[in-house]
Amino acid sequence: MKFKHLAISAVALGVASAVFAQVKPEDEIRYRQSVMNVVGRAFGPMIGMAQGKLPYNKEVVAKNTQVIETLSGLHWNAFGPGTEKGAPTKADLKIWSEPAKFKESAEKSQQLTAKLAQTVKGGDEKAIKAAIGDLGKACKGCHDDYRLKEARS
Amino acid sequence: MKFKHLAISAVALGVASAVFAQVKPEDEIRYRQSVMNVVGRAFGPMIGMAQGKLPYNKEVVAKNTQVIETLSGLHWNAFGPGTEKGAPTKADLKIWSEPAKFKESAEKSQQLTAKLAQTVKGGDEKAIKAAIGDLGKACKGCHDDYRLKEARS
Predict the structure, then answer these.
(1) CB-side neighbour CA atoms (13 Å) of B134
(2) Which residues lie below 8 Å from residue A148, measured CB to CB, with a gap of 6+?
(3) How far apart (Å, rounded) are the C-alpha atoms in residues B82 and B96?
(4) CB atoms A38 and B19 under 8 Å
(5) Phi-psi region for residue B103, left (φ > 0), alpha (ψ -120 to 50) or beta?
(6) What does the pLDDT look like over B141-150, one tens digit per residue?
């Protein structure tokens, strides 16, 4: 039961799929990459708006924030034991050797996502841009710490 | 402006990212694959529940339906002109040669997703399982029509 712990983590974070099946490491790697791809595509234009490089569009911000909020947690939960390798991945092995620090990054990111979602509901453009910037810094910080420049197999 | 039409479609469907950038075909292919991967992981256990192969879990159904509903539309919108090739893909070229029929499948799927989300809110397990089954058939129908068995490059 290599993935028992993974399943427990999934339950703890309220995530569903891993509860029901022993997910293959290569599928879990592809899954977390997929989640981050979708989140990145939603967040990219928001960063551009926060930096003044794109015109602010509140409908886009609302819709994309919903995507980011809904997927928040799914990728964090997909770095369970046994998923260190199995397919090309940029995930640094530090994720598994310093799980407490990684978890701290995950929690910070999720808190900032929740704060962004709340701020978006408030409708204050300046505050929303600041919240986007804060989450962007958290994303970058975790990527700097845990994402390798080149994929390893 | 090869992707001008893509951008317009994105606006029409309320999707954001393609509006702001000329997305490379390979990135668009990866993106739609990512969305479908995430949707599939959310929907898989729900299909198992509807078929009686997994115990029914209303929290999982609610959470996963939210993922599916939020991502509904994102992948349909990522088959724009110019994204027929550029990376290995199982997308059948019929998608681009019979766009009206493909659009019909997309709309049916989105309607059934909305119906599922509504039914989940109602809380009637039997109705929810039926709605899961209906959406599952629509997914399968479109895959049968438009997803190749092997990736082409």
Answers:
(1) 17
(2) A90, A91, A92
(3) 9
(4) no
(5) alpha
(6) 999 999 999 9
By DSSP bridging, strand B89-91 and strand A147-152 are unpaired
Nearest residue to B31 via CA among A31, A38, A29: A38
Q: For residue A38, give the nearest of B21, B34, B57 by CB distance.
A: B34
pLDDT of residue A21: 57
pTM: 0.87
**Cβ of residue B16 closer than 8 Å to a chain A Cβ:** yes
User: Helix, strand, or coil here: B120?
Assistant: helix
Q: Which residues of A touch B70 (CB under 8 A)?
A: 66-67, 70-71
Judged by DSSP in three states, A90 sits in strand
Can you tell me which residue has the tokens 């999720």? A110
At B22 the pLDDT is 75
Complex confidence, ipTM: 0.86
Amino acid in position B112:
L
Residue with tokens 């993935």: A3
Tokens 């930096």 map to which residue? A51
